[in-house]
């Protein structure tokens, strides 16, 4: 049973990607909707299997590491697999209606969509540095192609800038992987963690760690390496922007977090941990401030992503040189932050796409009258914003509460100021959108009204983000499941 589920998660997206290349957009849409059902089913089934039996290592094709590819299937990995299934399915359903099937280049959306999904699952389940790199590159190349599907010169410029940044990040990461292999003779994360405990203080390993972290920070768009993100997220089609912000940048952070938690205690330093935290804090403040100033709606949401990414890098100072209890608080808070942000930001980008479709403009000032004639999409946008503002009972509130407790319990009280300031600035740019929408422009309804299903999808994602705080405890209990005996 497990073999079928693992094959479904990894090989079904690849098969769907290949088949989608052979058909047009409309046929690819129906084919993809069937594939989404299969992916969600496999993700839910594997989630319940891990919740019942605990995590395990799985060798593809029965070939054990180091000759074969070994996957790490635990509660945390399955949480992200299930998150990907939920968000990607929502974006795929939205794209099937939102995108124009008569534009010839849109037919490539579905193959790129499925290659992206395969890469994401490979990253969540990967157990060694090289296969994580393969999954990350599959994600990057698919995401660049999706950005370029806008078809105009601006989309091509944004995709090329994204590609250049991604290649530089990949080179730094791959050089670090080579140095790690030279130091430890293995690329298995579990094996390197064991060897790092036996032989601490390896200078080459420390340099490799720094190179890999730099490359991953560039791919995650951490300030000040974020210059590629706003153009790419802002100019891409809204379902693509939702995928990029909710899932793609999380993959590189996920690898960085795993590296830090596995190897950081032995190869990391206080300076590196604090530097990551400081850059994350600057990202929160700078990204939020620029979001308040943007004249275009999608640029507001894109710079909001820069800010929200900053919170993630508080994981590094809050888990280095602290007690196990504080580290667990920080890890739990960060995991909830990733999930909450993925749901909320996907909802915001999809709702923003609906508003742009309705008004025919991307400018914030052209939202005048939207609150009167198009309240549903605006309400979805606001619900997602509530999670970014970290108001109860949202997942954002539960995440920030855990991070605040970790900051105080570790004696690093200054990070609480970042959390509070970030929440206030998030409120400022969300209310700015609402202020523009409540301006009365005309007594006549001059807006295009999108199909109800386009409006329902971001609403469901926003409600999931809103209710995440109510189910945080059982969710965290499954994510913390240890490994069992089997593989």
TrEMBL record:
<protein>
    <submittedName>
        <fullName>NADH dehydrogenase</fullName>
    </submittedName>
</protein>
<feature type="transmembrane region" description="Helical">
    <location>
        <begin position="267"/>
        <end position="293"/>
    </location>
</feature>
<feature type="transmembrane region" description="Helical">
    <location>
        <begin position="342"/>
        <end position="361"/>
    </location>
</feature>
<dbReference type="Pfam" id="PF00361">
    <property type="entry name" value="Proton_antipo_M"/>
</dbReference>
<dbReference type="InterPro" id="IPR001750">
    <property type="entry name" value="ND/Mrp_TM"/>
</dbReference>
<feature type="transmembrane region" description="Helical">
    <location>
        <begin position="30"/>
        <end position="50"/>
    </location>
</feature>
<feature type="transmembrane region" description="Helical">
    <location>
        <begin position="108"/>
        <end position="126"/>
    </location>
</feature>
<feature type="transmembrane region" description="Helical">
    <location>
        <begin position="204"/>
        <end position="228"/>
    </location>
</feature>
<keyword id="KW-1133">Transmembrane helix</keyword>
<dbReference type="InterPro" id="IPR003918">
    <property type="entry name" value="NADH_UbQ_OxRdtase"/>
</dbReference>
<feature type="transmembrane region" description="Helical">
    <location>
        <begin position="162"/>
        <end position="184"/>
    </location>
</feature>
<feature type="transmembrane region" description="Helical">
    <location>
        <begin position="373"/>
        <end position="393"/>
    </location>
</feature>
<feature type="transmembrane region" description="Helical">
    <location>
        <begin position="132"/>
        <end position="150"/>
    </location>
</feature>
<keyword id="KW-0812">Transmembrane</keyword>
<keyword id="KW-1003">Cell membrane</keyword>
<feature type="transmembrane region" description="Helical">
    <location>
        <begin position="240"/>
        <end position="261"/>
    </location>
</feature>
<keyword id="KW-0472">Membrane</keyword>
<feature type="domain" description="NADH:quinone oxidoreductase/Mrp antiporter transmembrane">
    <location>
        <begin position="128"/>
        <end position="422"/>
    </location>
</feature>
<feature type="transmembrane region" description="Helical">
    <location>
        <begin position="76"/>
        <end position="99"/>
    </location>
</feature>
<comment type="similarity">
    <text>Belongs to the CPA3 antiporters (TC 2.A.63) subunit D family.</text>
</comment>
<feature type="transmembrane region" description="Helical">
    <location>
        <begin position="413"/>
        <end position="434"/>
    </location>
</feature>
<dbReference type="InterPro" id="IPR050586">
    <property type="entry name" value="CPA3_Na-H_Antiporter_D"/>
</dbReference>
<feature type="transmembrane region" description="Helical">
    <location>
        <begin position="454"/>
        <end position="472"/>
    </location>
</feature>
<feature type="transmembrane region" description="Helical">
    <location>
        <begin position="300"/>
        <end position="322"/>
    </location>
</feature>
<feature type="transmembrane region" description="Helical">
    <location>
        <begin position="6"/>
        <end position="23"/>
    </location>
</feature>
